[in-house]
Amino acid sequence: MVPPVAVSPVIKTARWSFLLIGMFYGKQRYDYLKPRAEKERLVEEAEKKIREEQEKIAKALAEGKKKKKTSLKVRRDTVKM
Amino acid sequence: MAQAVQKLVAKVPTLIGAAATYSKPRLATFWHYAKVELVPPSPAEIPQAFIGIKNIVTGVNSGRLGQTTVKDAFRNGLVCTEVLMWFYIGECIGKGGIVGYAV
Protein backbone atom coordinates (compact mmCIF):
# COMPACT_ATOMS: atom_id res chain seq x y z
CA MET A 1 0.00 0.00 0.00
CA VAL A 2 1.18 3.48 -0.79
CA PRO A 3 2.16 5.29 2.43
CA PRO A 4 -0.19 8.13 3.33
CA VAL A 5 0.87 11.54 2.09
CA ALA A 6 1.72 14.36 4.49
CA VAL A 7 -0.83 16.99 3.51
CA SER A 8 0.27 20.63 3.58
CA PRO A 9 -1.21 22.73 6.43
CA VAL A 10 -2.70 25.19 3.92
CA ILE A 11 -4.85 22.49 2.39
CA LYS A 12 -5.81 21.03 5.76
CA THR A 13 -6.95 24.33 7.21
CA ALA A 14 -8.70 25.25 3.98
CA ARG A 15 -10.64 21.95 3.91
CA TRP A 16 -11.80 22.08 7.49
CA SER A 17 -12.59 25.78 7.44
CA PHE A 18 -14.69 25.33 4.29
CA LEU A 19 -16.46 22.43 5.99
CA LEU A 20 -17.30 24.54 9.03
CA ILE A 21 -18.30 27.56 6.95
CA GLY A 22 -20.52 25.31 4.84
CA MET A 23 -22.25 23.86 7.90
CA PHE A 24 -22.83 27.34 9.23
CA TYR A 25 -24.13 28.58 5.88
CA GLY A 26 -26.45 25.59 5.47
CA LYS A 27 -27.98 26.10 8.91
CA GLN A 28 -28.44 29.84 8.33
CA ARG A 29 -30.07 29.36 4.94
CA TYR A 30 -32.39 26.69 6.32
CA ASP A 31 -33.48 28.99 9.14
CA TYR A 32 -34.07 31.75 6.60
CA LEU A 33 -36.09 29.61 4.20
CA LYS A 34 -38.27 27.76 6.71
CA PRO A 35 -40.66 30.58 7.77
CA ARG A 36 -40.93 31.74 4.17
CA ALA A 37 -41.97 28.29 3.05
CA GLU A 38 -44.63 28.14 5.80
CA LYS A 39 -46.09 31.47 4.68
CA GLU A 40 -46.09 30.41 1.07
CA ARG A 41 -47.90 27.20 1.97
CA LEU A 42 -50.67 29.12 3.72
CA VAL A 43 -51.07 31.48 0.76
CA GLU A 44 -51.10 28.53 -1.64
CA GLU A 45 -53.83 26.79 0.37
CA ALA A 46 -56.05 29.88 0.38
CA GLU A 47 -55.61 30.36 -3.37
CA LYS A 48 -56.31 26.69 -4.00
CA LYS A 49 -59.63 26.98 -2.15
CA ILE A 50 -60.66 29.95 -4.26
CA ARG A 51 -59.64 28.15 -7.43
CA GLU A 52 -61.64 25.06 -6.51
CA GLU A 53 -64.74 27.15 -5.80
CA GLN A 54 -64.43 28.81 -9.18
CA GLU A 55 -63.96 25.47 -10.88
CA LYS A 56 -67.11 24.14 -9.23
CA ILE A 57 -69.10 27.12 -10.40
CA ALA A 58 -67.77 26.78 -13.93
CA LYS A 59 -68.59 23.08 -13.96
CA ALA A 60 -72.12 23.69 -12.72
CA LEU A 61 -72.67 26.30 -15.41
CA ALA A 62 -71.33 23.97 -18.10
CA GLU A 63 -73.67 21.18 -16.99
CA GLY A 64 -76.60 23.52 -16.92
CA LYS A 65 -75.86 24.64 -20.47
CA LYS A 66 -75.51 21.05 -21.69
CA LYS A 67 -78.88 20.15 -20.17
CA LYS A 68 -80.52 23.10 -21.91
CA LYS A 69 -79.02 22.12 -25.26
CA THR A 70 -80.22 18.51 -25.14
CA SER A 71 -83.74 19.51 -24.08
CA LEU A 72 -83.95 21.99 -26.99
CA LYS A 73 -82.92 19.27 -29.45
CA VAL A 74 -85.72 16.99 -28.34
CA ARG A 75 -88.35 19.67 -28.83
CA ARG A 76 -87.12 20.44 -32.33
CA ASP A 77 -87.54 16.83 -33.42
CA THR A 78 -91.09 16.62 -32.17
CA VAL A 79 -92.02 19.86 -33.97
CA LYS A 80 -90.64 18.60 -37.29
CA MET A 81 -92.76 15.52 -37.00
CA MET B 1 -46.19 -15.13 -0.08
CA ALA B 2 -45.63 -15.59 3.63
CA GLN B 3 -43.05 -18.28 2.93
CA ALA B 4 -41.12 -15.98 0.60
CA VAL B 5 -41.06 -13.27 3.26
CA GLN B 6 -39.87 -15.80 5.85
CA LYS B 7 -37.06 -16.94 3.59
CA LEU B 8 -36.00 -13.33 3.01
CA VAL B 9 -36.03 -12.59 6.75
CA ALA B 10 -33.91 -15.69 7.38
CA LYS B 11 -31.38 -14.45 4.81
CA VAL B 12 -30.91 -11.01 6.42
CA PRO B 13 -28.29 -12.05 9.07
CA THR B 14 -26.16 -13.72 6.39
CA LEU B 15 -26.42 -10.61 4.22
CA ILE B 16 -25.36 -8.39 7.10
CA GLY B 17 -22.44 -10.75 7.83
CA ALA B 18 -21.38 -10.66 4.19
CA ALA B 19 -21.56 -6.86 4.12
CA ALA B 20 -19.44 -6.66 7.28
CA THR B 21 -16.74 -8.99 5.93
CA TYR B 22 -16.68 -7.04 2.67
CA SER B 23 -16.46 -3.61 4.22
CA LYS B 24 -14.11 -4.25 7.16
CA PRO B 25 -10.81 -4.32 5.21
CA ARG B 26 -11.90 -1.39 3.06
CA LEU B 27 -12.84 0.62 6.14
CA ALA B 28 -9.45 -0.32 7.61
CA THR B 29 -7.58 1.07 4.58
CA PHE B 30 -9.76 4.18 4.60
CA TRP B 31 -9.01 4.73 8.29
CA HIS B 32 -5.30 4.07 7.67
CA TYR B 33 -5.16 6.95 5.18
CA ALA B 34 -7.68 9.23 6.87
CA LYS B 35 -5.78 9.16 10.17
CA VAL B 36 -2.91 10.96 8.45
CA GLU B 37 -4.49 12.86 5.58
CA LEU B 38 -7.93 13.99 6.73
CA VAL B 39 -7.21 15.01 10.32
CA PRO B 40 -7.93 18.64 11.19
CA PRO B 41 -4.87 20.90 11.46
CA SER B 42 -3.22 20.94 14.87
CA PRO B 43 -2.96 24.36 16.59
CA ALA B 44 0.70 24.53 15.54
CA GLU B 45 -0.16 24.13 11.88
CA ILE B 46 -2.65 26.98 11.57
CA PRO B 47 -0.03 29.79 11.57
CA GLN B 48 1.91 27.74 9.01
CA ALA B 49 -1.22 27.78 6.86
CA PHE B 50 -1.36 31.59 6.96
CA ILE B 51 2.34 31.77 6.04
CA GLY B 52 1.65 29.38 3.18
CA ILE B 53 -1.17 31.57 1.86
CA LYS B 54 1.11 34.60 2.06
CA ASN B 55 3.75 32.68 0.05
CA ILE B 56 1.16 31.95 -2.61
CA VAL B 57 0.19 35.62 -2.79
CA THR B 58 3.83 36.72 -3.12
CA GLY B 59 4.29 34.05 -5.75
CA VAL B 60 1.42 35.50 -7.76
CA ASN B 61 2.75 39.04 -7.41
CA SER B 62 6.33 38.15 -8.34
CA GLY B 63 5.19 36.20 -11.37
CA ARG B 64 6.68 32.94 -10.13
CA LEU B 65 3.32 31.23 -10.37
CA GLY B 66 3.23 32.06 -14.07
CA GLN B 67 6.10 29.58 -14.47
CA THR B 68 4.15 26.56 -13.30
CA THR B 69 3.87 23.78 -15.82
CA VAL B 70 0.47 22.81 -17.22
CA LYS B 71 0.73 19.49 -15.39
CA ASP B 72 1.31 21.19 -12.06
CA ALA B 73 -1.39 23.76 -12.73
CA PHE B 74 -3.87 21.00 -13.57
CA ARG B 75 -2.97 19.13 -10.40
CA ASN B 76 -3.30 22.24 -8.30
CA GLY B 77 -6.63 23.00 -9.94
CA LEU B 78 -7.94 19.58 -8.98
CA VAL B 79 -6.80 20.04 -5.39
CA CYS B 80 -8.50 23.46 -5.25
CA THR B 81 -11.73 21.97 -6.59
CA GLU B 82 -11.64 19.27 -3.95
CA VAL B 83 -11.09 21.82 -1.20
CA LEU B 84 -14.00 23.94 -2.47
CA MET B 85 -16.32 20.92 -2.57
CA TRP B 86 -15.95 20.53 1.20
CA PHE B 87 -18.04 23.69 1.48
CA TYR B 88 -20.98 21.92 -0.17
CA ILE B 89 -20.51 18.87 2.07
CA GLY B 90 -20.72 21.24 5.03
CA GLU B 91 -23.84 22.82 3.56
CA CYS B 92 -25.49 19.40 3.25
CA ILE B 93 -24.68 18.71 6.90
CA GLY B 94 -25.98 22.10 8.00
CA LYS B 95 -29.25 21.90 6.13
CA GLY B 96 -29.91 18.31 7.15
CA GLY B 97 -30.35 16.67 3.76
CA ILE B 98 -28.54 15.89 0.55
CA VAL B 99 -30.79 17.31 -2.14
CA GLY B 100 -32.56 20.56 -1.42
CA TYR B 101 -33.82 22.15 1.76
CA ALA B 102 -36.55 20.26 3.58
CA VAL B 103 -38.65 23.30 4.54
Shape of chain A: rod-shaped
Write down how many β-strands of chain A occur, each being a DSSP E stretch of 2 or more residues: 0
User: How do the helices and strands follow one another from N- to C-terminus of chain B?
Assistant: HHH
Largest sheet of chain A: none
Q: Outline the low-pLDDT stretches of chain B.
A: none
Q: What can be said about the biggest beta sheet of chain B?
A: none
Proportion of helical residues of chain A: over 70%
Strand content of chain A: under 5%
- Number of distinct beta strands of chain B: 0
Instruction: Please give the alpha-carbon distance between the first and last residues of chain A.
Output: 101 Å
Give the H and E element order of chain A. H
Tell me roughly what share of residues is in helical segments of chain B.
Answer: over 70%
Oligomer: heterodimer
Backbone shape of chain B:
elongated
Number of helices of chain B: 3
Task: List low-confidence stretches of chain A.
Answer: none
- Give the DSSP E fraction of chain B (strand runs of 2 or more residues): under 5%
Please state the structural category of chain A. Answer: mainly alpha
Mean pLDDT of chain B: 91
Gyration radius of chain B, rounded: 23 Å
GO molecular function (chain A): proton transmembrane transporter activity
Family (chain A): Belongs to the ATPase e subunit family.
Pfam family, one (chain A): ATP-synt_E
Organism (chain A): Hucho hucho (huchen)
